[in-house]
Amino acid sequence: MGRAGELVLLVLAAGKGTRMRSRQPKMLHPVCGRPMLLHVTALGRGLGAKRCIVVLGSGQEELRGALAHEPVEIVVQSEQLGTGHALLQAREALQGHRGPVLIVHGDQPLYRTSTLETLLDVFRSRSADLALLVGELPDPTGYGRILRGPDGRIDRIVEETEASPEVRALREVNLGIYVAEAAFLFKTLSRVADRNEKREYFLTDIVELALEAGHRVETASLEDLSEGLGVNDRADLARAEAVLRRRIAEHWMTQGVTLVDPERTYLDADIEIGPDSVLEPGCRLRAGTRIGAGCRIEPNVVIDASSIGDNVLIKPHCFIEQARVGDGCIIGPSAHLRPNTQLEDGVRIGNFVEVKNSRLGRGTKADHLAYIGDADIGEHVTIGCGAITVNYDGQKKSRTVIGDGSFVGCNANLIAPVKLEANAYVAAGSTITQDVPGGALAVGRARQRNVEGWRQRRFGKRDAD
User: Fold this and answer.
1) CB-based contact 452:446 (threshold 8 Å)
2) For the chain, which end, N or C, has fewer CB atoms within 10 Å of the first or last residue's CB respectively?
3) Domain shared by 49 and 174, yes or no
4) Are residues 176 and 261 in the same domain?
5) What is the per-residue pLDDT across 317-327, written as a single tens digit (0 to 9) for each?
6) pTM, rounded to two decimals
7) Which one of 97, 317, 368, 380 is the catalytic residue?
8) Are 266 and 221 in the same domain?
């Protein structure tokens, strides 16, 4: 029987999404850092689906780009003639398939794998020809209503645009998730007509057609109604983000992570956090971020696609992007680690320090108001307040190399390309344009000269009064 065959996930993602009022395809708007369409295609992996087929239409070029590294097959709905018509575009791709086809929508990113497993179990255990997910909503506006017969079994689905006031008052709705064998599905779809106000082919019509033909139609009820939220506009997008953010926060708290204020902690979907780490209010961990164990992330820190080691302290108002931070580092407050920054274990980066495309060795510290760009810095180096690696000459960028144990005084300018060998010293206020040998003191500043009596001669006795 097909019910026991391999599962195919079929994602309908051809809609225009005009209510988003966006130049970007609706399905690419992110929910917790991941395009909503990719939340849906990920369900296939969780369910063990053998194949995932995505039906594209409007904005297909951008959507193809987003799906380029996903294990999916793509079919195209050239004309927007409804959900039934969209599904028919997959008929050739599913020719000869013997097994269940699970139909989901690309703008419903909140479904859990367990919910869809329940629907599949209903389909299989009750020997259904068609099973669908339903729910009873406090406000069913916009959804097709479920009509049941005297025996309580589903009779048909009526789209809201076609519903009478009495039918609109019903609160049990179709949530748009179906499972059926491929052969049954396309045979039934071929009988769907466009006799409705929109002149579209509604996928929902297959329920009534299946019942008329004597097929068995079953339903599974959604327990957590928030899962069924579809994203049609920006308000829906914000609601979906809030639901998934709470879900992610709860997950990490069960894994031994402390969120001081979960409602004000913003965690993307594709992150990792080690046990005994503490996140304070206002933190934002973006997709691709990995936080080690025993870390403390203080308020209003943003970390984007970065790797943070164990026992790291990040003080308030830091921005860390595409960087790697070793164990035991202390960052901030108000520091900026830009892409390709690598901090080895025990590094200290203080307030208003910016580091970009640089490697800092173990125990090195830059505690205040410094810029380190395109530099290779050894171990146990001290970078003084206001020191700068001058990496750009107006045409090209060059690198600075600082050896182990070196000391760079306050307000020093290191004009790249330049190298300080191990244990070199740079005097405060110096501008260094030549390499400095190991153990040497480099002084690159004008000699101080005091001009006695200059003020009175310049401004006269009146200034002194």
Assistant:
1) no
2) C
3) yes
4) no
5) 999 999 999 99
6) 0.90
7) 368
8) no
